[in-house]
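#lab-general

N.A. 3:47 PM
ok so I finally got the sequence cleaned up, no stray characters, all 72 residues accounted for. can someone with queue access submit it? mine expired

B.Y. 3:52 PM
send it over

N.A. 3:53 PM
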Amino acid sequence: MQLTATLPHRHRRDRHDGRSRTRNAVLQTLARAKRSGGPEDHALYSCHCGYAFKAEVTTSVGCPHCGTSQAW
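B.Y. 4:20 PM
back already:
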């Protein structure tokens, strides 16, 4: 004896609803990041004088202790 069950009929829209929910979640995350001011771009630098400091990420940063440029 073979038992069978009828599978529910799936509409094509169901497949796209998952994508739109995922897209909405991504858009909500991006909007939340924008409202919070975005990421903070700071890095930890160490100077040859032995001083370690945090500063904004740029192509060159001056050491606040000795004034030497820290080029990346």
